[in-house]
What does this fold into?
Amino acid sequence: MKRYLSIVVFILLFAKVYAAYIKPFTVNNVEFQMSAVKSGSFKMGTNKGYPNYPRHTVNITKPFWIGRTEVTQELWQAVMGNNPSEVKGAKLPVTNVSWTDCQVFVLKLCQLTGEHFRLPSEAEWEYAARGGNHQHGKKYSGNNSPDKVAWYRDNSGGRPHEVATKQPAEALGVYDMSGNVAEWCADWLGEYTAQTQTDPSGPHSHRFAIRGGNWDSPENGFPERFTVYGRLCGKPEEADAKTGFRLALDDEKPLVCTNQPYPLCEVRRGDEQDPAKVIACIIEAALSGNANAMYRLGLAFIVGVNNITKDDAMASFILEKAAAGGDKDAMYQLAMEYYTDNEKESGNRWIKEAANAGHPKAMTLMWADVEKDPTKAREWLHKAAEAGEAEAMYALARDYLLGDEEPRDAHKAFDWAQKAANKNHGGGMYMTGLMLWYGEGCVQDMDKALKWMQRAADEKNNSFAKEFLGQCYYKGDHVTQDYAKAYIFFREAAKHADHPSGAAMHYLSLCYRFGHGTAKDLQQADYWEKKAQETGSDEADAMRQLLHNK
It folds into this structure.
């Protein structure tokens, strides 16, 4: 009896200790578990068979958690809302997922749980498959006999099977790290060296590591494929019915930002023309905590590119992290998202953050819409202009020309107008042309003036430049008189969607009244004259009137 009780106590104690190394999670009513993996050292690879050699020592310095099973279809469905797998079943491992798909899943899981889930590195995967700091020394994960621990070609029936239906690897209690489906790893596949490595993440190459083999292993006569050391790889956009993944977990909170610069690995690898590889690189950098990469990834979720489906909630989640990490572009973009959702208070808060971080457009908004103190607002306008924001440059040019908010100074006005024009600002081009035409704040030059007006009309669809050119052709002023061209310029300027020109409406009325460049039409003439009176003078007219009077 005592012996029986001793056995029971031992089993209960063992179960309690074992349970202490298991961490359960539930997402949308679907439960999954992670096993604790302590830090330690192990021999990675083997001394036979490319690309698995040479065998070398690897130090894993940070403890982590590894998924007890491959990610199931029911868990994928709970997080992503779809199921891409070819063979369907709630407890079957999810398949037909690319490396990029897996990373998007990880990001959404981080958002739902507040934990730092990720894919395991290749070294972490093999360390866990070999038993962690209790190395079992077996060829397959948990046993030298594949039938006991793996679904593979000889026993799978040509299909994946439900997870955790084979014997687990005892040390960590993990299932299917040999066979069933192959598993994506976080890092790029590279050649091994004999040197000792610490927490390796793999060199940048064109393909990501895939480990563990699958239900069709050994493929092509390579029995090493589903051993603990067997290696495969795939492009980040590739997906098939034999490949899934399992999760890793850090004890840190997810997506902790850093401001350290990162090289554009798509350029470093010569893949700048391959959008799938560009996205893979951005995701990799974002998950490592780079704030600027998070910003770029947030934009990808806003518009939807490649394997990334448009997702406003994910975009906001990632942009918040990037903004909190100090990326000023993310701050500005986040403000725009809040404005779009009519959350003006939050939008204003992030605009202030972005402006203080030196974002030129945010500084301009501080002047135009956010800052309620007139003196401080002018300070923001000057900061934005000096930081290179074209809209602020144009605003200063206008103020110096008209003497509005700034003492009238034609030379400063022309200087800022030219800077805005060189930044490809339509208003700056128009104003530069106008001041050159009249020789205000600069040497008069009609030819240059017409060139700037033409650029503003052609490149920026500036209605005031079109109206100005229309007058030139209508009157034959420094160009050959051409009523037909004048009519076209007046019509486009009068019907401009954003900034219809009142002066253009008046001249369009004259074209219809006298048949200049179009057929006579007194009804149209009266209509456009009435529209001109209703529209009244505008800022562009005020500038021209001031210069004309001088």
